[in-house]
Amino acid sequence: MTQDKKEYKYIFGPVPSRRLGMSLGVDLMPHKTCTLDCVYCESGKTTNLTVERKAFVPTDEVIGELTDFLSSDPALDYITFSGSGEPTLHEGIGDIVDFIKKNYPQYNVAILTNGTLFYLPEVRKQLLKADLIKASMDAVSDETFVRINRPHRTLNLEDICNGLVKLRQEFKNSLVIEVFFIPKINMADDELKKIKLMLDRIQPDQVQLNALDRPGTESWVDTAEEVEMKRIASYLGKAEIIKHYKTSAMENSAGMDVEHAIVSTIKRRPCTARDIAQSLGISEENVKAHADILINNSRIVEHKMPRGVFYKLYE
Ligand code: SF4
Q: Which structural domain, as residue segments, surrounds residue 115?
């Protein structure tokens, strides 16, 4: 029996994500409603620059869509709050996170945020039950903050940084800080030194370094060279570069890390190359080529069954 794919307004995917596995997206914000107007934003210019928190979309409708989608017990690793605006601006985000964790504790919840509102105690409190918060911090000096992030006029960088420190003290799950680097703007030694000091204060579980991957809002924003990113990663220590520099001829056009996606897909149950190809929307040949690499690296194994060859995790 086939079921028509439902149209949802606030949830999207699930999509295979490089870091989160199969991830269902939740977008609580109207297009480009944000506290910042970052020059590198891939969603375009911010049209509603605001710090006013409110129910931009009805909280009960979002919960209704989640209830409907999750009723079929889908294979997901994460439910991720992201989209084309700042999700912590939605005052109902805490109720939605609590709803998911109470009724569907088998799913992890991730919040992708620009981190500007954690100076507000109520925002920190609302997200305590999330499994992962990934917050941005691209600058620690006012001038650079204004050049890169073009914040709402009432935002204060010192408050924002202190808010991230407080979040770390109160939030017991995984906190990731992402720093986006732009050549000639925030890659000079003095800015890097300030960023490192602030990261030392925040003590996140992980630091991720990013750079322009596709056209941003402003055409003058350049992509940081790989060698420069490596230099910064080694200076900051324990930082991971997440900008995907091309290294493999087999990489697909969407920049998906196919090997990671294969491992995430078969983590829940063994799959054939065809199963995985359908799930990831890529060719069977592509799956087989990457699966061979994973087999050679002893990450997965083949298992012959009447329906064909299944891949499963190496144990
Ligand atoms: S915080 Fe995120 S959504 Fe807002 S402008 Fe910056 S990159 Fe775009």
A: 11-241
What distance in Å separates the CA atoms of residue 311 and residue 292, rounded to the nearest whole number?
Answer: 10
Dist CA 199 CA 47 (whole Å): 31
Say which residues have a Cβ less than 8 Å from residue 127's Cβ, sequence separation at least 6.
88, 93, 94, 97, 111, 133, 171
Q: Is the pTM of this model over 0.70?
A: yes
280 plus 217 within the same structural domain? no
Confidence at residue 282, expressed as pLDDT on a 0 to 100 scale = 80
Atom of ligand 1 nearest to the CA of 84: 3
Does one domain contain both 221 and 122? yes
Residue closest via CA to ligand 1's atom 7 equals 41
> Token pair of 287, please?
């799956």
What is the atom index within ligand 1 of the atom nearest the CA of 114?
1
Q: What confidence score (pLDDT) does residue 97 get?
A: 98
Last residue of a domain, one of 211, 241, 271: 241
The candidate with the shortest Cα–Cα distance to 115, out of 106, 123, 104, 126, is: 123
Rounded to the nearest angstrom, the distance between the alpha carbon of 155 and the centre of ligand 1 is 14
Q: Could you give the number of structural domains in the chain? A: 2
In a domain, 248, yes or no: no
Binding pocket residue ranges, ligand 1, CB within 6 Å: 34, 36-38, 41, 43, 46, 85-86, 114
Whether residue 278 sits in one domain with residue 213: no
| pLDDT per residue as tens digits for the range 3-17 | 445 789 999 988 877
- Condensed to tens digits (0 to 9), the pLDDT of residues 128-149 reads 999 999 999 999 999 999 999 9
User: Of the residues 41, 88, 182, 213, which should be mutated to test ligand 1's pocket, given the most ligand atoms within 8 Å of the CB?
Assistant: 41
Q: What is the reported pLDDT for 104?
A: 96
Measure 23 CA to ligand 1 centroid, in angstroms.
20
The SS3 call for residue 101 is helix
What CATH number corresponds to the domain at position 110? 3.20.20.70
Same domain for 38 and 96?
yes
* Candidate from 35, 36, 45, 221 with most ligand 1 atoms within 8 A of CB, to mutate: 36
> Confidence class of residue 249 from pLDDT cuts 50, 70 and 90?
very low
Residues 222 and 283 in one domain: no
Tokens of 10: 């606030």
